[in-house]
Amino acid sequence: MIIKNFIQTLYIERNKNPFFDSLGWASPEYHLMGWALSCLQLHKLYGTITLYANSKAAYLLRDTLQLPYSEVNVELDKLNLVHPNLWALPKIHTYSLQKKPFLHVDGDVFLFKPFSPDFLEGDLIAQNIEIATEYYYTQTQKELMSHFSFFPVCVKKDFESGIPIQATNAGILGGINMSFFFDYVATAFEYVYKNVDNLKKVNVERFNVFFEQHLFYALAKEKGLSINVLINEIVNDNGYKYLGDFHDIPFKRSYLHLLGHFKRDEMTCIQMAAKLRELYPDYYERITVLFRKKNIQLSPCGFINHLYLEKCPNFSYGGGSSNEIFISKKPCNESKNTHLQRLILISQKCPLDIDEDLFKNDFDKFYNQLKFFLKNKNFYANLKERDLSAQHWYRCLFSDPSDIFNQVVIRCNEAIIIESSLDWGGLFNKNYRVGAEYYSDIQTKESRFFNLLIKEATDNGFSLYDINEIDNEILLFLSEPLSIKEVLIKMKEKFENDVILNYYAIYENLILSSIMQLVIKKAVKPFSE
Prior knowledge:
CATH architecture of the largest domain: Alpha-Beta Complex
Structural class: alpha/beta
Helix content: 40-55%
Radius of gyration: 25 Å
Oligomer: single chain
Number of strands: 19
Largest sheet: 8 strands, mixed
Number of helices: 18
CATH class of the largest domain: Alpha Beta
Distance between the termini: 53 Å
C-alpha cells in the first residue's frame, strides 16, 4: 500500500497574532511564507492535502492566504493544550484522528520532488534518525529523569540503557501501520498528561521532542519495527547541515527542512521567501500586501522597496552596464533602518583589547562610506528583476558539473567593497545570523578586512557580508567577464607555486567555493552579452 493521505497541522493560540508573533521564525511574514511554500509544493506534487487546525489557524491558511487545501479539519478546537509551549501536542492530536495510512509534513518542510513509492510503503516513516548530544537531548533527559513521575515503559528502558538515546526527526512522520499509531498517540498523551504538574520544573520547549520524536523511536524499537527514513545518515541533534540550502534546489536537493535555528536565521528565511516569490509570485505578493495593509513593518530586510526614483545618465560600477539607470531620491532614514541600527549598537561596545580611538575612527570611516553609497550612489532600478533573475544564477552555473569551468561570470554592479581595519561585516553577522557556527568564534582584531555591500530592493537597502582576501581578488578580476577556468588561471598568481603544484585540487575547490558563495550573495552572476 502506498500512502496517499498527506496532512499538515497548525494550531495558533488565542493570544497569538500571526501578523505580530513570529511563532518560531525570524519574523512573522516568514512564518506565513513558509506555510505557503510548503503547502503549495505538496499540492503541486500530490494534489490532495488535508489541514488539521484550530479555527484561528484554519482561517489564516484557508481564508486569508487562500492556500489550496482540499479539506480543512478544525478538530483541534477540542484540544486541551495544557501548556502553551507544547507545540508538538497538536500534531499528536492530528495523528490520533487518522483512520488510514498517512504522512504528516511539517509547515517548515519543503518538497521539490515526489517521494519514491518504496518510501511511501513503509510501516513507519520519518525524516531521519538523530542521536542525542548535550546540545539538545541529553541535558533535558536529565531534567526529565529528575522531575517526572511517569515514563512510558519503552522510554524508561531507553533512558536507563546507559547509552545516548536516539530519536526520529518528525519533519515528516507517518506510515501504514495504524496499530502502531494507535498505541503511540495514546502513550504520548499519557506521557504528557501524567506529568502536567511537573512541567514547571523542566524545559517544556525541549520536552516536545521527547514525547513526539524520542517516544516514536523507543516504541518502534520495543515493538521491533523498522523505520523508513528519507535521510539515511544518523545525525547528531546539533549536526544538521544543508537543510536550508535553497540554492541547491532542484538539481542537488529536493527536500529541505528549516528545523531549529534555520527558521530563526533571517538569511535562510530570505532565501525561502525568494523561492516562494520565484515559484508562486501571487502568494508572495498576497502576503506582503497583507502586512502593508495592516501597516505592519516587514522583517529587518523588508520585501517591498519604496524608493523614489529618477532617471539619470548611464552609470557603471565594477563591471557591465545598463541602459536604464536610476538614482534614489529617498533619504537614508537611520532611525528606521534596522541594519544601520545594529551597526551603531555594535560600535558602542569597544572590546577591552582594542584601542578606543582605533575602534571609533575605523567605524566612523566604514559607516560614513556605507551611508554615502546608500544615499548617493546610482544603482539599477530593476533590483526586483535582478532578484528574480538571481534565483537562477546558481543553478545556471553549477547544475552541470561537466561544464562548470566553461561558465562565464562577471561582478554585479550592485556589489561594493568597503575596506576597514576592523571586521565590521563579521561583527554585523555575528549579531545578525542565527546558527552560523563560523561567526561565534569571530574576534575583534586589527587587520585588513573586506566588507561586501550588496544593494537590495528592501527597506534597509543593503545586505552586508564579510569576505576574505581571496573573494576580494576574484571580484577585482571579475570587473570584466571571465570563464571560471580563466579565474582559476588568474588567481594562481596570488598563491605560492608549491601550493599550485602540490595541492591543486584543494586550490581549485577553494576558488570554486568562493565563486559559488559570491553568486549566492549576488556579488557575481552569469555573464550574458
